[in-house]
Amino acid sequence: MKILSGINDFLWSWPLLYLLMGTHLYFTFRLHIPQRHIRKALRLSVTPEQGEASHNLSAFGALATTLAATLGTGNIIGVSTAVALGGPGAVFWCWLTGILGMATSYAECYLSVLFREKDPCGLYAGGPMYVMKNGLHNKKLARFYALCTLCAAFGAGCTTQANSLTQTTSSAWGLSPHLVGMAAAFLVGLIILGGVRSIGKICMKTIPLLGILYIGGCLLLLFLNRDVLPETVLTILRHALMPQAVLGGAAGQAARYGISRGLFTNEAGIGTTAIAAASSASQSPSRQAYVSMTAVFWDTVVMCLLSGLVIVANSIKYPASLLGVNETGLANAAFSCLPMGGSLFLSLALTAFALTTLIGWSYFGEKAFGFLWGEENMRVYKLIYIVMIYIGAVIPLDVVWECTDFINAMMVLPNVLTLFLLRRCIKK
CA 89, CA 82: separation in Å to the nearest integer? Predict the structure, then answer.
């Protein structure tokens, strides 16, 4: 545990942050700043494409599945932790990773649609492992990435989210972790056993509603704290752009924690979002890449920014409310200011986001399992995933978190290497 923790502290302090931010900057300029077409991308995400096959996900369905996996406790508690450890400036650096990360997400999704495969039933399967297999012609690297994705599905996508779910329900309503674990396993099991169409339908119905409710709650809090909003923005910028915040020193934690939180929440550079993009019925790699790029926009540019503004504004207006509050309590302190049950609203939001993340990540793991061992054994994977939800709900997760951080690092390296080697295949 000590050795693994030391490796993760090194990898996720600066080496991987430099690598991912460098990748984001490279593809931003190589692809002629695709972020400037965000309005077009948002419009395409809600515009049906002619000729979309009914047995594959629509472009919006693929986007909703991606958001189900990426939108979660990291957008709320993760931002709270980043502000607590890195200061208000962490919000700016988190937001910046979202702006730049859209270009890397475009590149990942473009290649995944370009090199995807179709099974005998007419369903598409893709992702970085298929890009490595069909684009790089390196099956060993592809199997390694698929294995890491499968482990991440059981870790970050399953056990950690199930544990976050039980922690929320236990602290808010005193519910038994065993009871919540069994209920979550049963509910998610019903959905994922129905296949990709079932997952897509649920995500398309729940994710927009959850997003609207959470954004609405944040906007209401910002309206209530509007008198300190200019000071909030200036505080964030001042702490983010002072020389020591970028180059080092005590305030240098702002860049480190802001960037790392942004990279973790939107997963640009890790490659998992491209798995959902490849399942789309869209025939145009560029069109689907634009649509899938908006997942990073909603996840980090909008949701994380709003969470950060709410938390910093509350700390400026009500500093006394932060006395004795731990790293994850900043969000609860901010949302408790909502009229009529702010703490209840936050608990319900965390519970709902944890459940949707369980559903979204089950699909990523399913595609990795299918790549390694074929579709005929898929029920074995789904049953293991359902059991792991219950196990994650009731066990301590220190080791699981450390393993998840290490696995994420092992996914970044081959994925970024593939993007650079196949960069000429991506149309500007």
Answer: 9
CA distance 167 to 174: 9
How does pLDDT run across 326-374, given as a tens digit for each residue?
666 788 888 888 887 778 888 888 888 888 888 888 888 989 999 998 8
Mean pLDDT score across all residues of the chain: 85
CB atoms within 10 A of CB 223: 9
For residue range 281-293, list pLDDT tens digits in order: 888 899 999 999 9
Per the CB < 8 A criterion, the answer to whether 190 and 47 are in contact is: no
Q: Any idea which residue has 């997942």 for tokens?
A: 295
Instruction: Supply 162's token pair.
Output: 């199930």
